[in-house]
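Many introductory courses stop at the sequence. We go one step further.
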Amino acid sequence: MTAQYWVGDFFVDLTRNQITQKAQSQTIPPKALAVLTHLAKNANKVVSHDELLAQVWPDTIVTPNTLQRSITQLRKALGEDGHQSYIKTHAKQGYSLEVEVRWQDKADATTPNSLQENAAALSNANSDAATARKPQPSLAGLRLISIIAGIVFLGIIGYMYIAATKQSSQLTFDRLSSLTATDDKEFDATYTPDGKYIVFHRYLDKTCGNKLWAKNINTQKEVELTKDWAAYGSHSFSKDGKELVFLKTQACNEAVTQKDCYDLVSLDFEKALESPQQPSLILQCKNSAVKKPIWLNNNDIALLQKKTNRWKLINYSITNDESTDLYDLNDGNLIDFAYSVKDDLIAVVRIDNEGEQHIEMLKPDGRILSSHPIERPQEIPPYRPIYPNFDPLNKQLIFSTGRQLFTLSYEGKVAKINLPFADRMVRPEFHPDGKSLLMIKGPYDSDIVLMPRREIIETNSVRPTKHAQLKQVRSQPSFERSNLGEDHAIFQPDGELIAFWSERSGEQQLWVRDGDGPEQLTQFPIDTYINGIDWAADGKSLLVNANNVLTQVFLDSSQKNLPLKHPVIKLFQWDSKNNSALLLVRINGILKFVEVDFSDSEIKEIADKIILWALKSEDGSLIYKDNLGQFWQPGPAEAQRIERLDNQGGAKIFVINDNVIYAINSENELWSYDLNTEVFKILGEVGEDVDYLTDINQTELLMTVKISAKKEVVELFVSE
């Protein structure tokens, strides 16, 4: 069999394990290429799972997930984005390659690069032959040819100079190293202004808080900077590197009245290197939320402040103890900002009323230097927020979408950075010399547990001990298990299927499971985020909020988008019978809790507060939970708080079955509240590893169990 062939306009070279298109080559695992080759040999025919497994993994026991991972790798390499699909899934049958395949003869083994060389040689040969046939030009003609050739030559030189200039700012990375490989969670890492230390936050689950730490890059010695565990936010250094500024609030296990309100504090870095210090209060937050303080070169502090659901950028003067507005919007909203110490420049990302994002460059006095829409490539979903940081050497910005890195010019141009790494990494932060950057790496690993209700539901008179119940929960095997995330499992109405999302194929995708095992229904593109799924009443399809767009997915994997002109932040519930849904959407840049009627696209705003979760009961009663964990339901004049459920909102979601609310509180207790009788009960205790309840029926319940939530700081090095 030949080792080279074409799949559409992709050139496959098995000798190099590469797929090439338009001179861009990707190295693909040999097993994945073997799958593609067998599909190519049977192009436009359905090849069963068993046949592919037997051909590619002969005499080897592997799971269907192994084949699914190879298919996912191939789809990424072939640039499939949900609109174009070369590899088609046939539910419970197999796969087919739906594209023209051309096999390369050895006698004509031309690669994409050699094709260009052959074309050039052919052009030269034709030119020589033509010269032999044509009469010699006159002297004037020769002069004209010389002038034209000179112009062309200068044009080529100019083009090469421009190309070289552009290429000089194109980042490439060739090495990655771990800086904080511990069992704790480390995040929010920055370099000190002199580049000798990194400062990061270390979070401890059992204290529900974090501390600031420093690590000497050369000696690898770690130093604890803060005395007490607390909820500290992102930090920033003064220009001279002597002080840190950051935000502080109560730990998550303490009672709060306004979760988004933080105090602005500072820390003497030089003293903290000698012994842990207590932060000093700079500014106390009272009536508005603030976030992301950044120390400016003039010793003022820029930070984001929110009033009436809209963010603005303010300047706080420590000397005068007063703040002024730097950047305020009448419509749309401010997403993020970054600051360049080297150029004394602020970059602001904002979203307009139409949902389009813009990059604007400001001076620290608020003067706008430029404003451009961000021209995002196909790899970035339209509504994905962009959080950039400055590249100190190339007068551009950099941002991550998860497994992909991009540069962003001051004019809004986006370019992808080719990475030799497959891990999800976020929050890029450059070293002052621009030769390396810090990122946060670490997947969230969760499983789905299916349990009979009789094994966890207890009477009020018998409250099981946490130790006994923990053992009981963990004795149940995971219903779905991988070393990545599985979450939000829900029962099919009047059916045997269970739907959930999983990252086992490399991206968050929608899966269903029956008695034969799990099956992947979607092929969403790289760096997809799913935030909400729900079944149709007839159990024949699901509504998925993927990348802020609602997609109806049928059990045969076909899809249909539900029209909505606003980005969907969260899908709470879908009422397919009435063709409506409860959603958190972004309208004119502001988050709104709404009910949408898809028949006429009518949007009904329900509440102007931040909503974490919302559902309607079987009799149509609306229940929603705010960011303080309080439960509400609409009243005749205004919303009424369900006071009996105060301090019971520990888990982020709740479920409703037969007009009864079920959820897990911060004490790991499963509770119920009957909406008809208003009776509240503690039903039993669950393990500390249980995140939340995702669904319940008459006989079983589904829970998400946290296996690990590791985060670590890594360092990427720019290629020389």
